[in-house]
Amino acid sequence: MVRKGKRARITQEGRTIIATKALAYPRIPRTELAEQLQGEFKREGHGVPTIETLERRISWYRNHAQDDPQDKPWSIATLDKFPIPTEALPIVLWVWFRQQERGYPLSIREAKWIARLYPFYGDVDQQLKLAQELECDAKQWAVVELITDVAGGTLDWRVIQIQLYERLINQKVDPELKAKLLSAPKDWPQEKRRLTAQREEEFLQRKKKEAHDERSHNQKG
To answer: Is the pTM for the entire model greater than 0.70?
Structure first.
């Protein structure tokens, strides 16, 4: 177990790693999570921060996420400050009701993502049939956006655009072309990134698996 650590400068990618863990596992105590992060930093070849430094970062990310107004419950009343297109309201209300039935609030951030994504899920009848899939995708991107916000970076929209294009043409983009499209621009300094396209995709795959496991568990229950 890596414990002592050292005074290491935390890069933008390192801040993303901390924010991702801090928000994905809110119930893990700070010290325990900090110890896990030291191990991950060592495996990734980053300078290993001290436990105290990691604990402060974990607390800051968790507190900042809780304070963000976009992560408060959505309702019609929130449209004044956080508008969404009128044509998206029916599907947002549909997902909101599904969430209410299960006892979970729909956040403003999630509602905004539903409004962004829903045109790629077919006509109204198809959207209602695919509401669960749309809901999961919106939640995943809302989490990615939140992480990029609290870590102080900029969301890499290329991953989203490629996924939406694949849905539009109903087939996967050629892997070589996809790799080329996701490669970092030469004028995009590493320190300006918060989530690389590859890390975003890895995170989304993990969240999709977690959502699938949760649905399977609920169906068995």
So the answer is: no
Report the Cα 45 to chain-centroid distance in Å: 24
Q: Which two tokens stand for residue 8?
A: 């290491």
Instruction: Please tell me whether residue 221 adopts helix, strand or coil conformation.
Output: coil
Instruction: Determine phi and psi for 73, rounding to 5 degrees.
Output: -60, 140
Q: What are phi and psi of 83, to 5 degrees?
A: -70, 150
Q: Verify that 107 and 51 share a domain, yes or no.
A: no
Q: Is 5 part of a structural domain of the chain?
A: no
How many Å apart are CA 108 and CA 165, to the nearest integer?
Answer: 25
Claim to verify: residue 62 and residue 88 sit in the same structural domain: no
The two structure tokens encoding residue 169: 């043409």
Contacts of 142 (CB under 8 A, 6+ apart): 107, 109, 110, 112, 113
Are the beta carbons of 74 and 96 closer than 8 angstroms?
yes
Per residue in 133-153, pLDDT (tens digit) is: 888 888 888 888 888 887 777
Name the residue range of residue 153's domain. 69-220
